[in-house]
Amino acid sequence: MIVAGLGCRKGCSAEDVMSALDAACAEARISRISIAALATGEIKREEAGIIELAEKLGLPLHIVDDEALLEAEPRTRTVSRHSIAKTLSSSLSEAAALAAAGERSEIIVARLISNGATCALAEVKEPG
């Protein structure tokens, strides 16, 4: 299962967020239909572009609380000063993807930025 973690500047459109998602999918060499769910942090709960994208794609949107973001923190790869200042996580998109995908997940595409939006992909790794 692959989860796309999303972040964005305030007021980004669904198209802006989609461009970040598409960039991450291209980096992973996967189709957008491979994405099982979207995730973001509590701070982006009301962000219209993210909500609209989830509805447009027909994907569940997981809102990850700050505690879960911090638990996923050690597995993130990117350090964003802006993200730390706003969310206490070094990468909101990476931490949200990891938290939503679960404890056995890992980043397969580190945070990418496109049109003011960010996307990271996490995949659940099967044991053994």
What does this structure look like?
By secondary structure, the chain is an alpha/beta fold. It has one domain (2-124): CobE/GbiG C-terminal domain (Nucleotidyltransferase, domain 5), CATH 3.30.420.180. The chain contains 5 helices and 5 strands. It has helices at 14-28, 48-57, 66-72, 81-87, 92-101, and strands at residues 2-8, 35-41, 61-64, 105-114, 117-124. A 5-stranded mixed beta sheet has the order 3-2-1-5-4.
What is the CATH topology assignment?
Nucleotidyltransferase, domain 5
Distance between the termini: 16 Å
CATH H-level name... which superfamily?
CobE/GbiG C-terminal domain
Tell me the count of domains: 1
| Inertia-based shape | globular
Order of strands, main sheet, comes to 3-2-1-5-4
Beta fraction of the residues? 25-35%
Q: What is the H/E string?
A: EHEHEHHHEE
Counting helices, strands and paired strands, the structural category is alpha/beta
Largest sheet: 5 strands, mixed
Tally the beta strands. Answer: 5
Q: Which ranges are low-confidence, i.e. pLDDT below 50, for 5 or more consecutive residues?
A: none
